[in-house]
# Entry
Amino acid sequence: MRSLYFRILIASVAAVGVSVAVLVGIYFGVSVPAISQKVHAVEDVLANDAAGVFARDGGSALKAYFEEIEAAQPGMIRYLVDANGRDVVTGEDRSALLGTDGRLARDSAGRDILVHRTSDGRYRMLIAAPPPVGLRDLVPYIVLIFGAVAFVCWWLAVGIASPIREMVPVVNDFGQGKLDVRTRITRHDEIGDLGRAFNAMADRIETLVTAERRLLQDVSHELRSPLARLSMAIELSRTATDPEAAANRLQREADRLSHLVGALLEATRQEGDAASTRQSVVNVPSVLWSVVSDCEVEAQARGCRLAVETISGWHMAGNFELLRRAFENVVRNAIRYAPNGTLVELLCETRGDGVAIAVRDFGPGVPEEALSQLGSPFYRVDRSRDASTGGIGLGLAIARRAVELHHGTWTVENAHPGLRVTIALPAVRAAA
# Structure
């Protein structure tokens, strides 16, 4: 029997059956003999008392004595007979009920007849008593107990086995490649912990597998063009009249390819290994000033200027390097599209219990329908932000993923003119 449901049900019912059998055995093997022994001892005393009452006060007194006892024990009738079986009170012949001590027969009411001798042997007391409780009398109660216990065991088995049965097709579907399936167990016991552990594992595996698939697709797509240019440069270098110029072209193509691979690996590492990011207390304005310091030279080279307005002393739990890369990619993207002689504005301010960093350029902006796609891997806007001027489309994707890893929000909007990228980070507190 392989079904956990039936194994639990049968094991529980069997355990109850054994318990009931043991209790019944104890009752009939120990309790009944002990009770019978005490009852016989009491009835022997009553038989001697009845004989004494009859000898002292006669039959009428004995009849009153028996009626008093019967009032306290309804359903039990007593007779005192002589050695020949004749009733000393009524004179009726009851010899048919005599014999060895013990249960002899039953009267017309179906009661068992018990016989007790007096100590002097002259009289016998006949007791018409209801039949003792037997196993047949206990059958309805045993059936009721088994029915109740079977229902409880069934309920217990269903509570244990049903959630596991529900998980089986989910696990099978996940094993067959349906990475988005999850269990719907909401219990708060060990089975619920198992379901939640499976969901957490499935989330992690889906993230890793999706990142791997995305990397393979992105690499196969993005490496095609630089590899083609590199192959062409190699062919041209073989017939080039200027070896130095040919070598420089090869170096540029190799540098582009190296930059692309590095960006791909960085994006994939953030996507697939988010749990491994090391947390520490990060001063957010300090991270922003570090990025400004690194980007000022690039801004001057492109003929624009950085204008910074920030607060001080705000800290949060996060990863310094990830936040720095996020801010740097957004700032460099703004510098790339800022017209000559304009500003790139950086604003860091408190917002609720968090902090918001807004970066705005005064360039051409992007079409409204493209705003929701900015930050997606390898997405490049046509026209003003094409492949020749917009890189490979991973800078903002890396920045957006870093913000999400810190449980922040990412907002992109046209500022008319220019584009504004706002990063909101939660759970920020002022330094003491």
Observations:
- The chain has three domains: 4-132, 137-222, 278-430.
